[in-house]
Amino acid sequence: MMFSRPSYAIGLDIGTTSVKAVQASIRSGRLCLERVGYAEVSPEQMNEDPTMAQANAVSEALERMPVSQSFVVGALPGQAVVIRYKMFPEYEGAALEQAVQTEAAQNIPYEMSDVMLDWSMLDQVAEGDKSKMKVLMVAALYDNITNRVLIADAADIQYGALSVDSLALADAAEGCDFLRVGESVALINLGAANTSIHFIKDGISNFIRDVNWGARDCVQAIAKSRRCDLKQAQREMLEAGAEMGTPEEPPPLPFDEAPDASAESNEAPALKAMGGNPLDPLGEELDAMGGGSPAPEISSASALSAPGDEKTVKELVGPPLQKLVGEIRRSFDYYEQQLYEHPVDRVVISGGIAEFPLIAETLTDELGLNVEVANPMDSALILRSGSDAGLMSEQPAQFMVAVGLAARGASQL
Questions:
Q1: DSSP secondary structure string, 340-391?
Q2: In this predicted model, what pLDDT tens digit does every residue of 208-259 receive, in sequence order?
Q3: Which of 104, 309, 312, 314 gets the most CB atoms within 10 Å of its CB?
Q4: How many whole angstroms separate alpha carbon 30 and alpha carbon 393?
Q5: Nearest-angstrom CA–CA distance, 164 and 185
Q6: Does residue 280 carry a pLDDT above 50?
């Protein structure tokens, strides 16, 4: 138990294939990165005992951090929660609390006794001659929260707070000074199995959507065509990325084997219960919520023995990337046309696959927008000497969620 005020905040991003940790403090009013941690989740152990597999990776990632002196902030994946934006009259105190509870009961597709509800007032908006309050409501099933707490317990740590990975993107972008007044920015985090799209307007959260697309889709497309296992397919993708301009020795992308046995396997009902929205997952997305069919694990010796007219890696990952572009277009159209919002000015992508050059290239060509790869090391953050920042320098974009969680925790110091 922590009896004294913590000196640091730790953002802990637990994925199915890796764990990213960032220890931070506040110096001269800016977020300072004190230490960085990274560990891969054992795919073999993940299949046998996902809780212990992730807990062991958490312990490794936090090995050099003073956890007992830190406020630890974890995150639930976006598809494990229900997020709603609602407008309310200018209530105060208990009246606003009651109004939020009533609205949540009508809009959250679960019994209120089964969820933990949190909310925050985002902005005051003028509607005619009246002023209304824009409120963000977040509801998470207790089962999903318990899964995260079990991992923490197994790693012998305690959370000071739990956030949501898509919301952490906004905190990271603010801490890194990536946002500009007057702009609508789309923050897109590309995970192993899912992608979150968070629209920020004038620095304020405005709309979030999570889609069932991840880096695994590209790897499986290569594995199927080459008739090789996923590791060999991943290597081919890395080699192709190097030829397109990535570093000569890129680190492993944060996906490996099939993460179907994850502790987050109960996330699908949250999506299935949200019917009636034009942005509901497509039928094939719901079928794939369990992770999709794993690619055939054929000996990698056959990987390069296909006929000379075989497709290039760029051609193979084209269809999965087009699916991603299609989902992002649907999200943009809904945001701009259905919500009557200002068109998106800029796109910032993050996640382990964000630095694969074809991602930004495809999104730029298809969306006609400036697409930036998030780099917290080239931002307003202060990097303390000896902070192990080298771990982040290899693939900085995949640490954005952890940076955002640390920023959230640092605000509590």
A1: -PPPP-EEEEESTTTTSHHHHHHHHHHH-SEEEE--TTSSS-EE-TTS-THH
A2: 999 988 888 888 999 999 998 887 887 788 777 777 764 444 444 444 433 3
A3: 104
A4: 20
A5: 19
A6: no
| pLDDT recorded at residue 219 | 87
CB 374 within 8 A of CB 132: no
Q: What is the pLDDT of residues 180-197, one digit of tens each?
A: 888 999 999 998 888 999
Query: Taking Cα atoms as reference points, which of 39, 14, 140 lies closest to residue 80?
Result: 140
Q: What is the DSSP letter of 179?
A: -
Distance CA 338, CA 334 (A): 5
Give Cα 260 distance to the centre of its chain: 18
Tell me if 125 sits within 8 A of 132, measured CB to CB. Answer: yes
What are the chain's domains?
A: 8-79+143-178+375-410 (3.30.420.40), 81-140 (3.30.1490.300), 215-372 (3.30.420)
Among residues 20, 12, 24, 6, the alpha carbon closest in space to that of 382 is found at 24
Q: Strands 195-201 and 204-211: what pairing? A: antiparallel
Q: What is the DSSP string of 36-54?
A: EEEEEPPHHHHHH-HHHHH
Tokens 């976006």 — which residue? 78
Burial of 109 (0-12, 13-18, 19+ CB in 10 A): middle
Rounded Cα–Cα distance for residues 40 and 19 (Å): 6
Q: What is the pLDDT of residue 169?
A: 95
Closest listed residue to residue 163, CA positions, set 391, 340, 411:
411
Supply angle C-alpha 127, 132, 137, rounded to 5. Answer: 130
Question: Coil, strand, or helix at residue 259?
Answer: coil
For 391, phi then psi, to 5°, come to: -60, -35
